[in-house]
Amino acid sequence: MRNRRVIQILGDHGISPILISMAGFVAVVVGVHQGVLHVAPGYQGTIDAGGEVLGRREWLLVGVGTVGVVGAASSKRRKRLSAVPVASGGVVLFEAFRTVILAANGLPYPLFRETTYRSSGGPVMFILGAEPFLLVAGGVLLVAAGVGGRRLHRHREDDEMSSAPSTSA
């Protein structure tokens, strides 16, 4: 007879690393569909981002999030694979901070300060959109999934070491 094991989604120690990584993946997917910059509420103006089609950077971030979820699911069996969601979360966090820095330096107008818009002459204020915040949340959740997978194995090892030794009779 084969002994089948079912992977538990909710463990005895709280939320499973798989659920945490899935939440991080959803935050990354929603984040890449948002804008990096917005016009502040109360001001007239729009930012044309160039279309609704996802670029190479967005597809790569979604792929990295997918690798993080697969790594968190695989970390249930192998302790070393819990480094995969940590690494993918680090990549997402790096990309989020890089995007904010490039957007802030590449904009001819300062962020979070009211300026005069060149074409219309009216006052306008640019602020960060939802993308950087969602990417940071997704990256942190992916890192937390990796740390949770690592801690899950530590509890399992403690349980195995505290059991009575078996005797062969």
Automatic annotation (TrEMBL):
Protein name: Uncharacterized protein
Species in which this protein is naturally found: Halobium salinum
Keyword list, A-Z: Membrane, Transmembrane, Transmembrane helix
Taxonomic lineage of the native organism: Archaea, Methanobacteriati, Methanobacteriota, Stenosarchaea group, Halobacteria
KW Transmembrane (keyword) present: yes
Transmembrane segments: 20-39, 59-75, 82-104, 124-147
Domain of life according to the entry: Archaea
